[in-house]
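Tyrosine phenol-lyase: structure tokens wanted.
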Amino acid sequence: MSDERMPPINDELLYSVEPYKIKVVEPLRATTLIERKVAIETAGYNPILLRAEDVFIDLLTDSGTGAMSDRQWAGMMLGDEAYAGSKNFYHLQATVREHYGYRHIVPTHQGRGAEHILSQMLIKPGDYVPGNMYFPSTRLHQELAGGTFVDVIVDGSYDPANSMPFKGNVDLAKFDALIARVGAERIPYISLAATVNMAGGQPISMANLRAVRELADAHGIRVVLDAARAVENAYFIQQREDGHRHKRVADILLAMCALTDASTMSGKKDALVNIGGWLAVNDDALYEQASNLALAYEGLHTYGGLAGRDMEAMALGIRESVQEEHIHARVRQVEYLGEKLRERGIPIVEPVGGHAVYLDARRFLPHIEQTEFPAHRLAVELYMEAGIRSVERGILSAGRNAQTGEHNPAALELVRLAIPRRVYTQSHLDLVALAIERVYRRRETLRGLKLVHEPNHLRFFQARFELL
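Answer:
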């Protein structure tokens, strides 16, 4: 009898399948168009202000919205809730040292707690902080400490159609020019984001990171990494940069961090937990200073606003995050949605990033002026179409100039579709692609928005609008 079996499944296909099975489910409630229109109007046409129960597929953020593993949930039962010296802190500390390489950590309630402590420690009024594109909360903490953010990212990052593999790279000429203009003594550190969020989740290369380190060392400037999605960045280095394909993601992550002096971390991303973060440093004096500030803003330096169970879950999540099968399938799921949109002719940021697909609202809605918030309008319409929540990354997120009161310029006008880790299936993403296609077909009928309520800081969280 002949062997009629099909050819063997290749490793690439196996890696593309989710490396987990579903053990617990959370029911979702589908809503009617009328219900969605009432909900979004009540929320002031701001998807962030919607009740979560009115959202069918929530792609607002990948921060704290992932699913923990059975081992993480089991670890929650091992929480040592001692006020000082919890054993879970020492487990977390040892895990960070093993996989990120930093000598000291101070736990924080989430990443912005670490940003706050770092900014208060290092920035003086009149300082300048260069970085590879801003992130709203990071820049706000720098500004509240008296600093001025200066963008030194490569120009290619501002072209959504540019498919260069490392659009998160620092333009060394821009960095050097800033040093020459203001003096190294007024630059406390350069702030580097791994997989730059506002550029579409774009990574920085190892070669560029090494060159930044050399230039910073030549002028005595610290290098600080936003490590929230550094594992995803390490994966892109493995896949896209010469000389790294044979290396483990875990080893690349360590090599990245070794080129920096400190890092802020939101454990709600790569570390696969719903709350938590840390500030990591190598310098003993900085660690003591950070520990003292943590006492004022977060909690004791061995818990930093977290329960022992949260630190245990984060330590276990770090170990899971660097597993090859996990990170490959995680990024592949994001790429899948990107492919579905590309097939439909939807304008997106290229190449697709590690945590989200970004719609290019300038090309999607070219007839809506930027001051009428086209990206935010697109996010509103996507919710009304199918109950899908997303977030604007454009002129609304950029905020206003504190001196002039004018909108800060935003070269990119994007809608972020952030995919939570280990939460949604391929069917969910198929629905997202279909809903976006339906909106795209009637895009010319859409009109912009008028801003009617504007908070002073991080306005996109609580702003309210009216339809024009």
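The domain at 11-62+324-467 is CATH 3.90.1150.10 (Aspartate Aminotransferase, domain 1). The mean pLDDT is 95.

Cheers.
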